[in-house]
Structures are given as structure tokens and as C-alpha cells.
Amino acid sequence: MRLLWVGGDHPRHLFYINTVHKLFPLSGAIVEHRENLVPQPDPGLAPVDRDNFIRHFSNRANAEERFFGHQTPPDCPTHLVGHDGLNSHDSVDFLTSIGPDVVLIFGSGLVKEPLYSSLPPPTINLHLGISPRYRGAATLFWPFYFMEPPYAGTTFHYIVAEPDAGDVVHQVVPELEPSDGIHDVACKAVAASARAALELLRILDEKGHWERFTQRGTGRNFLASDFKPEHLRLIYNVFDDDMVRHYLDGRLTSKVPRLTRQF
Q1: What SS3 string covers 133-196?
Q2: Angle at the Cα of 221 from the Cα atoms of 220 and 225, rounded to 5 degrees
Q3: Do 106 and 16 contact (CB within 8 A), yes or no?
Q4: What pLDDT is stored for residue 171 in this prediction?
Q5: Cβ contact 24:203 at 8 Å
Q6: What is the pairing mode between strands 123-127 and 154-158?
Q7: Helix (H, G, I), strand (E, B) or coil at 113
Q8: Contact indicator for 127, 133 with CB cutoff of 8 Å
Q9: For strand 102-106 and strand 220-222, is the pairing parallel, antiparallel, or unpaired?
Q10: How far is CA 24 from CA 13, 21, 166, 251, in A?
Q11: pLDDT by residue (tens digit) across 100-119?
Q12: What is the pLDDT of residues 16-52, one digit of tens each?
């Protein structure tokens, strides 16, 4: 099985694929350089929103360091790209040279033409969100904003032209613990998904296919522009990043997702 990865270069992205690479060696990787893990707040923010913004993204970087440590791209033929280079003819040429049987995607920008048409049929994306309820951007943040921490999970799905809309292969939610903050849950979701990816590849290797499940129900496709620093007031000024404890103690009620499972 010739395996290619398309993904980003943040610690969570590299941890995921390095976990896979240990047991299912990659034939190649297209690695996109992503935005800074700790972005700078806009200068016009109110003090409370500036403080929350810095706290939020600093905590994210610290959580990824604690959970994933120092990560480097996998030791395999690698095509490094910027945002504008992902969907380029150079990327297509690299993919063609590898000739993958299977492609895993996690953490890159949206795959478009001409790269999209070059992907083999078994191409699945790891989406950080439970689709279709949470699709698009920042979909491990929005379950907390809507006070639904059990929905902070992931979806493996076939890639289609519409973001996060392909048939589902498998969904994952991490085990919640009272001390978990929002970024602990996100990191645990990625770690659990990396383990799930190994099992999915074993199934594909043995059976030659995955079961496919059409996405049903309704949800929302969040844009990056939907997130505003003011949204962080609920997470930090109301709950002090302790929402999981409130949920587990029964002080916060939430629906629980019905997950699609391959195993």
C-alpha cells in the first residue's frame, strides 16, 4: 500500500502523521507551512478581548507542546509548500511521481483543482469536528462556545469538493476528564484520532475498503471569519476554561453525538 499524506506543519498535524508513519510507512508527503500557532491580536481590541486572545492561543501552543512535544516532518520524500502552492501543478507532479494507493489529509488548506482531481478514490480527510453538526473552521472551538463539549470530536470522511461533506468513515471523541480545558480536549481528540487512523489502515489493508456512511442531519459550515475574539469571553470570563468540569458535574447539560463508527 503506497500511502501519501497531505497536511500542515503544526505539532498536532505532524504528531498524527508520525504516529501513522511508524506502522504504515509513507511513500511521500505534501506538507503545507501553516500560519503561526500563536497569532498576534488586532491592536484595536478591548483589553478583556486582547487578554483572552493571548491566553487562548498561548494555551493552545502550550497544550500542543505538552501532548505532542517536538515534531518534525516524516522521513520520506516530501514536497514543502506555502498556502499558494498546495493546489499547484508542482503538487500534482509530486503526487503523480509517488503514485499513491491511499491519501490521508489532515491540517492542510482546502484541496482544490488541479490537485483534487489527481487524488485516488481512497482519500480521506481528518476533520476536527463532528460532521455535519460542526463543519468548516475552528470546529473544536465552536462546541465549547455553544456549550456542547461532548461534540468536540473528529470525523474521518472521504474528500469531496464541498468542505467536510463527504461520506463518513469513522468518528472519534476523546474521554473527558474534569481537569480538561478546551485545548486539552482538542489535543486528546487528535491523539485518539491518530490511534484510530492506524486501525482504519489495518481494516483497509485486510478488507480492501471501508464502509461509507452518508452524512445525515443538519449543521453549520463555519468560516474562519465567523470567529471573533469576543467569543472567548464565554470560555474564559464565564467558565474560566472549566466547562468540562461543569458538564461532568451535571451543572451544564448538553446533547451527546451519535457517532459513526467503523470499528
Answers
A1: CEEECCCCCHHHHCCCHHHCCEEEEECCCCCCCCCEEEEECCCCCCCCCHHHHHHHHHHHHHHH
A2: 120
A3: yes
A4: 98
A5: no
A6: antiparallel
A7: coil
A8: no
A9: unpaired
A10: 16, 5, 24, 43
A11: 999 999 999 999 999 999 99
A12: 999 999 999 999 999 999 999 999 999 999 999 999 9
User: The C-alpha cell of 234 is what?
Assistant: 464565554
Instruction: Classify 250 in phi/psi space as left (phi over 0), alpha (psi -120 to 50) or beta.
Output: left
As a whole number of angstroms, the distance between CA 127 and CA 149 comes to: 16
Phi, psi (rounded to 5 degrees) for 160? -135, 175
C-alpha cell at 39: 497569532
What pairing do the DSSP bridges indicate for beta strands 3-8 and 28-32? parallel
Q: Which fold has domain 3-248?
A: Rossmann fold (3.40.50)
User: Does the model's pTM come out above 0.90?
Assistant: yes
- β-strand pairing of 220-222 with 134-136: parallel
Domain definitions of the chain by residue range:
3-248
Non-local (6+) Cβ contacts of 239 within 8 A are 246
| pLDDT confidence band for 56 (50 / 70 / 90) | very high
